[in-house]
Amino acid sequence: MLFNSQPFLLVFLPLVLAAFHGCARLPGETGRTARQLVLVTASLVFYAAWNWRFVPVLVALALATWWIGRRYADTGRAVWPVAGIVLNLAVLGVFKYANFIAANVAALVGGRHAAWSIVLPLGISFFVFQKISYLADLKRGGPEYARAHRYRLLDFAEFVTFFPALVAGPLVRHNEIIPQFAAPVLTARTSENLSRGAMLFLIGLTKKAAIADSIAPISDTLFGKAASGAVLNGAEAWAGSVAYTLQIFFDFSGYSDMAIGLALMFGLILPVNFNAPYRSTSLRDFWRRWHITLSRFLRDYLYIPLGGNRAGLVRQCVNLTATMLLGGLWHGAAWTFVAWGGLHGVGLAMNHLWTRAGMRMPAWLGWLVTMLFVIVGWVLFRAPDFTTAWHILGSMAGLHGIGSLHLRNAVVFWAAIGIALIGPSSQRAALGLLRPSPWIAVPAAAAFVFLLFLTGGRVPSEFIYFQF
Hints:
single chain; mainly alpha; 72% helix
Protein backbone atom coordinates (compact mmCIF):
# COMPACT_ATOMS: atom_id res chain seq x y z
CA MET A 1 0.00 0.00 0.00
CA LEU A 2 1.32 3.41 -0.98
CA PHE A 3 0.90 6.71 0.85
CA ASN A 4 0.12 8.29 -2.52
CA SER A 5 -2.71 5.90 -3.43
CA GLN A 6 -6.44 6.50 -3.12
CA PRO A 7 -7.09 3.34 -1.04
CA PHE A 8 -4.62 4.60 1.57
CA LEU A 9 -5.84 8.19 1.52
CA LEU A 10 -9.58 7.51 1.43
CA VAL A 11 -9.96 4.22 3.32
CA PHE A 12 -6.97 2.98 5.32
CA LEU A 13 -5.80 6.22 6.93
CA PRO A 14 -9.23 7.56 7.98
CA LEU A 15 -10.22 4.19 9.48
CA VAL A 16 -6.96 3.78 11.40
CA LEU A 17 -7.04 7.37 12.69
CA ALA A 18 -10.65 6.98 13.83
CA ALA A 19 -9.94 3.67 15.59
CA PHE A 20 -6.76 4.98 17.22
CA HIS A 21 -8.28 8.18 18.57
CA GLY A 22 -11.38 6.28 19.63
CA CYS A 23 -9.24 3.91 21.69
CA ALA A 24 -7.34 6.88 23.12
CA ARG A 25 -10.51 7.87 24.96
CA LEU A 26 -10.36 4.67 27.01
CA PRO A 27 -8.86 5.11 30.49
CA GLY A 28 -5.30 4.29 31.61
CA GLU A 29 -3.53 1.14 30.49
CA THR A 30 -6.65 -0.14 28.75
CA GLY A 31 -6.55 2.82 26.37
CA ARG A 32 -2.82 2.52 25.81
CA THR A 33 -3.03 -1.19 25.02
CA ALA A 34 -6.01 -0.72 22.73
CA ARG A 35 -4.45 2.06 20.66
CA GLN A 36 -1.18 0.14 20.41
CA LEU A 37 -3.02 -2.93 19.17
CA VAL A 38 -4.72 -0.75 16.57
CA LEU A 39 -1.38 0.55 15.30
CA VAL A 40 0.38 -2.83 15.29
CA THR A 41 -2.54 -4.49 13.50
CA ALA A 42 -2.84 -1.64 11.01
CA SER A 43 0.91 -1.78 10.35
CA LEU A 44 0.80 -5.50 9.58
CA VAL A 45 -2.18 -4.96 7.27
CA PHE A 46 -0.30 -2.10 5.59
CA TYR A 47 2.71 -4.36 5.02
CA ALA A 48 0.60 -7.35 3.97
CA ALA A 49 -1.06 -5.21 1.27
CA TRP A 50 2.26 -5.33 -0.58
CA ASN A 51 2.98 -9.03 -0.06
CA TRP A 52 1.39 -10.93 2.81
CA ARG A 53 3.91 -13.77 2.51
CA PHE A 54 6.64 -11.62 4.05
CA VAL A 55 4.65 -10.66 7.13
CA PRO A 56 5.94 -13.79 8.96
CA VAL A 57 9.53 -12.64 8.22
CA LEU A 58 8.80 -9.24 9.74
CA VAL A 59 7.03 -10.72 12.78
CA ALA A 60 9.56 -13.50 13.39
CA LEU A 61 12.52 -11.12 13.22
CA ALA A 62 10.80 -8.71 15.60
CA LEU A 63 9.98 -11.46 18.11
CA ALA A 64 13.49 -12.91 17.92
CA THR A 65 15.13 -9.50 18.46
CA TRP A 66 12.81 -8.67 21.39
CA TRP A 67 13.50 -12.06 23.01
CA ILE A 68 17.26 -11.70 22.51
CA GLY A 69 17.17 -8.28 24.17
CA ARG A 70 15.41 -9.72 27.18
CA ARG A 71 17.85 -12.63 27.38
CA TYR A 72 20.74 -10.17 27.49
CA ALA A 73 19.01 -8.16 30.20
CA ASP A 74 18.51 -11.37 32.23
CA THR A 75 21.94 -12.96 31.74
CA GLY A 76 24.30 -10.08 30.96
CA ARG A 77 26.04 -12.29 28.39
CA ALA A 78 27.28 -10.21 25.43
CA VAL A 79 26.83 -13.18 23.12
CA TRP A 80 23.09 -12.43 22.96
CA PRO A 81 23.15 -8.99 21.27
CA VAL A 82 26.00 -10.16 19.05
CA ALA A 83 23.92 -13.17 17.99
CA GLY A 84 20.95 -10.90 17.37
CA ILE A 85 22.99 -8.58 15.15
CA VAL A 86 24.36 -11.56 13.21
CA LEU A 87 20.84 -12.95 12.79
CA ASN A 88 19.51 -9.66 11.40
CA LEU A 89 22.50 -9.24 9.09
CA ALA A 90 22.09 -12.84 7.90
CA VAL A 91 18.44 -12.25 6.98
CA LEU A 92 19.41 -9.07 5.13
CA GLY A 93 22.29 -10.88 3.43
CA VAL A 94 20.16 -13.77 2.18
CA PHE A 95 17.38 -11.64 0.75
CA LYS A 96 19.39 -8.70 -0.57
CA TYR A 97 22.92 -9.88 -1.31
CA ALA A 98 22.85 -13.64 -1.95
CA ASN A 99 22.65 -13.31 -5.73
CA PHE A 100 25.16 -10.45 -5.77
CA ILE A 101 27.73 -12.41 -3.77
CA ALA A 102 27.19 -15.62 -5.71
CA ALA A 103 27.49 -13.83 -9.06
CA ASN A 104 30.76 -12.16 -8.06
CA VAL A 105 32.24 -15.37 -6.65
CA ALA A 106 31.27 -17.19 -9.84
CA ALA A 107 32.87 -14.46 -11.96
CA LEU A 108 36.10 -14.68 -9.95
CA VAL A 109 36.43 -18.42 -10.65
CA GLY A 110 35.40 -18.07 -14.27
CA GLY A 111 31.91 -19.46 -13.83
CA ARG A 112 28.40 -18.12 -14.31
CA HIS A 113 25.69 -17.77 -11.67
CA ALA A 114 22.06 -18.52 -12.52
CA ALA A 115 20.19 -16.04 -10.35
CA TRP A 116 18.03 -17.53 -7.60
CA SER A 117 14.40 -16.44 -7.43
CA ILE A 118 14.63 -14.34 -4.29
CA VAL A 119 12.06 -11.59 -3.81
CA LEU A 120 13.28 -8.67 -1.72
CA PRO A 121 10.88 -7.91 1.15
CA LEU A 122 9.72 -4.31 1.07
CA GLY A 123 11.85 -2.02 3.24
CA ILE A 124 13.96 -4.86 4.66
CA SER A 125 17.04 -2.64 5.01
CA PHE A 126 15.16 -0.16 7.15
CA PHE A 127 13.53 -2.56 9.58
CA VAL A 128 16.72 -4.63 9.89
CA PHE A 129 18.81 -1.52 10.65
CA GLN A 130 16.27 -0.49 13.29
CA LYS A 131 16.73 -3.76 15.11
CA ILE A 132 20.50 -3.66 14.73
CA SER A 133 20.64 -0.20 16.28
CA TYR A 134 18.58 -1.47 19.25
CA LEU A 135 20.86 -4.46 19.83
CA ALA A 136 24.02 -2.40 19.33
CA ASP A 137 22.77 0.10 21.93
CA LEU A 138 22.16 -2.74 24.39
CA LYS A 139 25.65 -4.15 23.89
CA ARG A 140 27.27 -0.72 24.15
CA GLY A 141 25.28 0.21 27.23
CA GLY A 142 25.85 -3.09 29.03
CA PRO A 143 23.49 -5.23 31.11
CA GLU A 144 22.30 -2.31 33.26
CA TYR A 145 21.29 -0.39 30.15
CA ALA A 146 19.56 -3.50 28.78
CA ARG A 147 17.56 -3.93 31.98
CA ALA A 148 16.55 -0.26 31.90
CA HIS A 149 15.37 -0.75 28.30
CA ARG A 150 13.61 -4.07 28.77
CA TYR A 151 10.46 -3.31 26.80
CA ARG A 152 7.03 -4.88 26.82
CA LEU A 153 6.34 -6.94 23.72
CA LEU A 154 3.61 -4.56 22.57
CA ASP A 155 5.90 -1.54 22.93
CA PHE A 156 8.64 -3.23 20.92
CA ALA A 157 6.16 -4.45 18.30
CA GLU A 158 4.83 -0.94 17.78
CA PHE A 159 8.39 0.40 17.51
CA VAL A 160 9.47 -2.04 14.79
CA THR A 161 6.22 -2.18 12.80
CA PHE A 162 4.95 1.43 12.96
CA PHE A 163 3.68 1.77 9.40
CA PRO A 164 4.66 5.40 8.64
CA ALA A 165 8.37 4.59 9.10
CA LEU A 166 8.30 0.85 8.39
CA VAL A 167 9.50 0.66 4.80
CA ALA A 168 11.57 3.79 4.11
CA GLY A 169 12.36 5.47 7.41
CA PRO A 170 13.20 7.77 9.02
CA LEU A 171 15.47 5.37 10.90
CA VAL A 172 14.03 5.83 14.38
CA ARG A 173 15.83 4.63 17.49
CA HIS A 174 14.08 2.76 20.25
CA ASN A 175 14.79 5.37 22.93
CA GLU A 176 13.40 8.14 20.71
CA ILE A 177 9.95 6.70 20.20
CA ILE A 178 9.09 3.97 22.73
CA PRO A 179 8.95 6.40 25.70
CA GLN A 180 6.34 8.37 23.74
CA PHE A 181 3.93 5.41 23.74
CA ALA A 182 3.03 5.97 27.39
CA ALA A 183 2.14 9.65 26.91
CA PRO A 184 -1.57 10.54 26.68
CA VAL A 185 -2.79 11.14 23.13
CA LEU A 186 -5.75 13.39 23.90
CA THR A 187 -4.22 16.61 25.19
CA ALA A 188 -4.51 20.33 24.55
CA ARG A 189 -2.21 19.83 21.56
CA THR A 190 -4.16 17.01 19.90
CA SER A 191 -6.00 19.23 17.40
CA GLU A 192 -2.82 21.10 16.56
CA ASN A 193 -0.89 17.85 16.10
CA LEU A 194 -3.58 16.59 13.74
CA SER A 195 -3.63 19.78 11.70
CA ARG A 196 0.15 20.24 11.55
CA GLY A 197 0.66 16.55 10.80
CA ALA A 198 -1.93 16.71 8.03
CA MET A 199 -0.25 19.81 6.56
CA LEU A 200 3.18 18.16 6.59
CA PHE A 201 1.66 15.05 5.01
CA LEU A 202 0.08 17.23 2.31
CA ILE A 203 3.42 18.91 1.59
CA GLY A 204 5.03 15.49 1.23
CA LEU A 205 2.22 14.25 -1.01
CA THR A 206 2.66 17.34 -3.20
CA LYS A 207 6.39 16.69 -3.44
CA LYS A 208 5.80 13.11 -4.51
CA ALA A 209 2.69 13.24 -6.70
CA ALA A 210 2.96 16.70 -8.24
CA ILE A 211 6.73 17.15 -8.50
CA ALA A 212 8.76 13.91 -8.31
CA ASP A 213 6.34 11.86 -10.43
CA SER A 214 6.08 14.68 -12.98
CA ILE A 215 9.86 14.95 -13.32
CA ALA A 216 10.44 11.19 -13.35
CA PRO A 217 9.62 10.77 -17.10
CA ILE A 218 12.51 13.12 -17.96
CA SER A 219 15.13 11.14 -16.06
CA ASP A 220 13.60 7.76 -16.89
CA THR A 221 13.53 8.52 -20.62
CA LEU A 222 17.05 9.91 -20.83
CA PHE A 223 18.69 7.30 -18.57
CA GLY A 224 16.78 4.62 -20.49
CA LYS A 225 18.02 6.04 -23.78
CA ALA A 226 21.62 5.94 -22.54
CA ALA A 227 21.19 2.40 -21.19
CA SER A 228 19.96 1.23 -24.61
CA GLY A 229 23.26 2.33 -26.16
CA ALA A 230 22.17 5.66 -27.61
CA VAL A 231 24.56 8.59 -27.19
CA LEU A 232 23.14 11.60 -25.37
CA ASN A 233 24.19 15.11 -26.25
CA GLY A 234 25.31 17.46 -23.49
CA ALA A 235 21.91 19.07 -22.99
CA GLU A 236 20.21 15.67 -22.69
CA ALA A 237 22.81 14.34 -20.26
CA TRP A 238 22.57 17.38 -17.99
CA ALA A 239 18.78 17.44 -18.16
CA GLY A 240 18.55 13.76 -17.23
CA SER A 241 21.06 14.09 -14.39
CA VAL A 242 19.51 17.23 -12.91
CA ALA A 243 16.04 15.73 -13.31
CA TYR A 244 17.06 12.68 -11.30
CA THR A 245 18.76 14.92 -8.72
CA LEU A 246 15.41 16.66 -8.26
CA GLN A 247 13.34 13.49 -8.50
CA ILE A 248 15.15 11.58 -5.77
CA PHE A 249 15.06 14.59 -3.43
CA PHE A 250 11.36 15.32 -3.84
CA ASP A 251 10.48 11.62 -3.85
CA PHE A 252 12.40 10.68 -0.70
CA SER A 253 11.97 13.89 1.26
CA GLY A 254 8.30 13.74 0.31
CA TYR A 255 8.07 10.27 1.81
CA SER A 256 9.83 11.45 4.96
CA ASP A 257 7.46 14.42 5.25
CA MET A 258 4.49 12.10 4.93
CA ALA A 259 5.90 9.66 7.50
CA ILE A 260 6.64 12.40 10.03
CA GLY A 261 3.26 14.02 9.41
CA LEU A 262 1.42 10.71 9.85
CA ALA A 263 3.27 10.01 13.09
CA LEU A 264 2.30 13.44 14.42
CA MET A 265 -1.35 12.69 13.67
CA PHE A 266 -0.95 9.72 16.01
CA GLY A 267 0.70 11.92 18.64
CA LEU A 268 4.26 10.71 17.95
CA ILE A 269 7.31 12.75 16.99
CA LEU A 270 9.80 11.27 14.52
CA PRO A 271 13.25 12.77 13.85
CA VAL A 272 13.77 15.14 10.94
CA ASN A 273 15.27 13.40 7.91
CA PHE A 274 15.92 16.25 5.45
CA ASN A 275 16.93 19.88 5.89
CA ALA A 276 17.26 21.58 2.48
CA PRO A 277 20.29 19.48 1.39
CA TYR A 278 20.70 21.15 -2.00
CA ARG A 279 21.67 24.40 -0.28
CA SER A 280 24.77 22.81 1.25
CA THR A 281 28.09 24.60 0.82
CA SER A 282 30.24 21.52 1.45
CA LEU A 283 29.93 17.76 1.22
CA ARG A 284 30.03 17.48 5.03
CA ASP A 285 27.17 19.96 5.16
CA PHE A 286 25.27 17.90 2.58
CA TRP A 287 25.44 14.77 4.73
CA ARG A 288 24.23 16.72 7.75
CA ARG A 289 21.14 17.62 5.73
CA TRP A 290 20.46 14.56 3.51
CA HIS A 291 18.86 11.41 4.98
CA ILE A 292 19.91 12.62 8.40
CA THR A 293 18.85 9.48 10.27
CA LEU A 294 20.95 7.26 7.98
CA SER A 295 23.93 9.61 8.32
CA ARG A 296 23.84 9.38 12.10
CA PHE A 297 23.35 5.57 11.91
CA LEU A 298 26.48 5.24 9.78
CA ARG A 299 28.33 7.61 12.12
CA ASP A 300 27.31 5.93 15.38
CA TYR A 301 27.35 2.27 14.35
CA LEU A 302 30.12 2.17 11.72
CA TYR A 303 32.35 5.25 11.64
CA ILE A 304 32.84 5.64 15.43
CA PRO A 305 33.33 1.87 16.09
CA LEU A 306 35.93 1.84 13.29
CA GLY A 307 37.84 4.49 15.24
CA GLY A 308 36.29 7.71 13.94
CA ASN A 309 38.77 10.55 14.20
CA ARG A 310 40.56 9.17 17.27
CA ALA A 311 43.58 7.66 15.52
CA GLY A 312 44.87 10.51 13.40
CA LEU A 313 43.95 12.15 10.13
CA VAL A 314 44.95 9.31 7.80
CA ARG A 315 42.95 6.76 9.79
CA GLN A 316 40.01 9.16 9.88
CA CYS A 317 40.02 9.41 6.08
CA VAL A 318 40.18 5.61 5.79
CA ASN A 319 37.29 5.25 8.25
CA LEU A 320 35.19 7.78 6.35
CA THR A 321 35.78 6.02 3.05
CA ALA A 322 35.06 2.56 4.50
CA THR A 323 31.87 3.82 6.15
CA MET A 324 30.55 5.34 2.94
CA LEU A 325 31.52 2.27 0.90
CA LEU A 326 29.34 0.19 3.23
CA GLY A 327 26.66 2.87 3.09
CA GLY A 328 26.69 2.60 -0.69
CA LEU A 329 26.40 -1.20 -0.52
CA TRP A 330 23.45 -0.82 1.88
CA HIS A 331 21.60 1.05 -0.87
CA GLY A 332 21.76 -1.85 -3.29
CA ALA A 333 23.50 -5.03 -4.34
CA ALA A 334 25.38 -3.51 -7.27
CA TRP A 335 28.89 -2.15 -7.79
CA THR A 336 27.48 1.17 -8.98
CA PHE A 337 26.10 1.75 -5.47
CA VAL A 338 29.45 0.80 -3.95
CA ALA A 339 31.19 3.23 -6.30
CA TRP A 340 28.70 5.96 -5.36
CA GLY A 341 29.42 5.37 -1.68
CA GLY A 342 33.16 5.28 -2.28
CA LEU A 343 32.98 8.53 -4.24
CA HIS A 344 31.26 10.24 -1.32
CA GLY A 345 33.70 8.68 1.13
CA VAL A 346 36.68 10.05 -0.77
CA GLY A 347 34.89 13.39 -1.12
CA LEU A 348 34.27 13.59 2.63
CA ALA A 349 37.90 12.70 3.33
CA MET A 350 39.07 15.46 0.98
CA ASN A 351 36.65 17.85 2.65
CA HIS A 352 38.25 17.07 6.03
CA LEU A 353 41.77 17.48 4.60
CA TRP A 354 40.78 20.82 3.06
CA THR A 355 39.35 22.02 6.40
CA ARG A 356 42.35 20.80 8.40
CA ALA A 357 44.65 22.70 6.04
CA GLY A 358 42.77 25.87 6.94
CA MET A 359 41.66 26.54 3.37
CA ARG A 360 38.34 28.24 2.61
CA MET A 361 36.28 29.14 -0.43
CA PRO A 362 33.38 31.55 -0.90
CA ALA A 363 29.98 30.11 0.01
CA TRP A 364 28.70 30.40 -3.56
CA LEU A 365 31.71 28.47 -4.90
CA GLY A 366 31.37 25.86 -2.14
CA TRP A 367 27.72 25.39 -3.11
CA LEU A 368 28.58 25.06 -6.81
CA VAL A 369 31.35 22.50 -6.22
CA THR A 370 29.15 20.53 -3.82
CA MET A 371 26.20 20.41 -6.22
CA LEU A 372 28.38 19.36 -9.15
CA PHE A 373 29.84 16.57 -7.00
CA VAL A 374 26.37 15.45 -5.83
CA ILE A 375 24.91 15.47 -9.36
CA VAL A 376 27.81 13.39 -10.70
CA GLY A 377 27.29 10.98 -7.81
CA TRP A 378 23.58 10.63 -8.60
CA VAL A 379 24.51 9.52 -12.14
CA LEU A 380 26.34 6.52 -10.64
CA PHE A 381 23.45 5.93 -8.23
CA ARG A 382 20.77 5.96 -10.97
CA ALA A 383 22.58 4.26 -13.85
CA PRO A 384 21.93 0.50 -14.18
CA ASP A 385 25.63 -0.17 -14.93
CA PHE A 386 28.99 1.55 -15.26
CA THR A 387 28.79 1.67 -19.06
CA THR A 388 25.63 3.76 -18.93
CA ALA A 389 27.13 5.99 -16.21
CA TRP A 390 30.32 6.62 -18.23
CA HIS A 391 28.30 7.46 -21.35
CA ILE A 392 26.20 10.02 -19.45
CA LEU A 393 29.18 11.53 -17.64
CA GLY A 394 31.08 11.79 -20.92
CA SER A 395 28.16 13.61 -22.49
CA MET A 396 27.97 15.94 -19.48
CA ALA A 397 31.63 16.73 -20.06
CA GLY A 398 30.82 17.78 -23.64
CA LEU A 399 32.37 14.80 -25.43
CA HIS A 400 29.31 14.38 -27.67
CA GLY A 401 28.38 17.96 -28.38
CA ILE A 402 26.15 20.42 -26.60
CA GLY A 403 22.95 19.78 -28.57
CA SER A 404 19.51 20.85 -27.41
CA LEU A 405 16.47 19.36 -25.72
CA HIS A 406 12.79 20.17 -25.42
CA LEU A 407 11.94 19.44 -21.79
CA ARG A 408 8.70 17.70 -20.96
CA ASN A 409 7.04 19.31 -17.93
CA ALA A 410 9.56 22.15 -18.08
CA VAL A 411 7.47 24.34 -15.75
CA VAL A 412 7.56 21.69 -13.01
CA PHE A 413 11.27 21.11 -13.64
CA TRP A 414 12.22 24.77 -13.12
CA ALA A 415 9.76 25.20 -10.26
CA ALA A 416 11.36 22.20 -8.53
CA ILE A 417 14.79 23.81 -8.79
CA GLY A 418 13.41 26.98 -7.21
CA ILE A 419 11.70 25.10 -4.37
CA ALA A 420 14.82 23.05 -3.62
CA LEU A 421 17.02 26.15 -3.42
CA ILE A 422 14.73 28.82 -1.96
CA GLY A 423 12.32 29.00 0.95
CA PRO A 424 11.90 27.10 4.24
CA SER A 425 12.20 23.35 4.66
CA SER A 426 8.99 21.34 4.88
CA GLN A 427 9.26 20.76 8.62
CA ARG A 428 10.00 24.41 9.35
CA ALA A 429 6.99 25.47 7.27
CA ALA A 430 4.46 22.95 8.61
CA LEU A 431 5.65 22.64 12.19
CA GLY A 432 6.82 26.19 12.82
CA LEU A 433 5.87 28.96 10.44
CA LEU A 434 2.30 28.03 9.50
CA ARG A 435 -0.44 28.49 12.09
CA PRO A 436 -3.66 26.42 12.02
CA SER A 437 -6.25 28.65 10.36
CA PRO A 438 -9.30 28.38 8.07
CA TRP A 439 -7.38 30.57 5.61
CA ILE A 440 -4.86 27.75 5.30
CA ALA A 441 -7.26 24.83 5.72
CA VAL A 442 -9.48 25.75 2.75
CA PRO A 443 -6.74 25.95 0.08
CA ALA A 444 -5.04 22.92 1.67
CA ALA A 445 -8.27 20.93 1.30
CA ALA A 446 -8.56 22.06 -2.32
CA ALA A 447 -4.97 20.98 -2.95
CA PHE A 448 -5.69 17.60 -1.37
CA VAL A 449 -8.70 17.06 -3.66
CA PHE A 450 -6.57 18.02 -6.67
CA LEU A 451 -3.88 15.53 -5.63
CA LEU A 452 -6.53 12.84 -5.16
CA PHE A 453 -7.62 13.29 -8.76
CA LEU A 454 -3.99 13.45 -9.89
CA THR A 455 -3.06 10.17 -8.16
CA GLY A 456 -6.28 8.54 -9.35
CA GLY A 457 -5.58 9.50 -12.94
CA ARG A 458 -2.40 7.45 -13.17
CA VAL A 459 -0.92 4.31 -11.67
CA PRO A 460 0.59 5.30 -8.29
CA SER A 461 4.37 5.00 -8.47
CA GLU A 462 6.43 3.45 -5.71
CA PHE A 463 8.84 5.58 -3.76
CA ILE A 464 12.44 5.26 -4.92
CA TYR A 465 13.69 4.12 -1.51
CA PHE A 466 11.21 1.21 -1.38
CA GLN A 467 13.78 -0.81 -3.35
CA PHE A 468 16.33 -0.43 -0.56
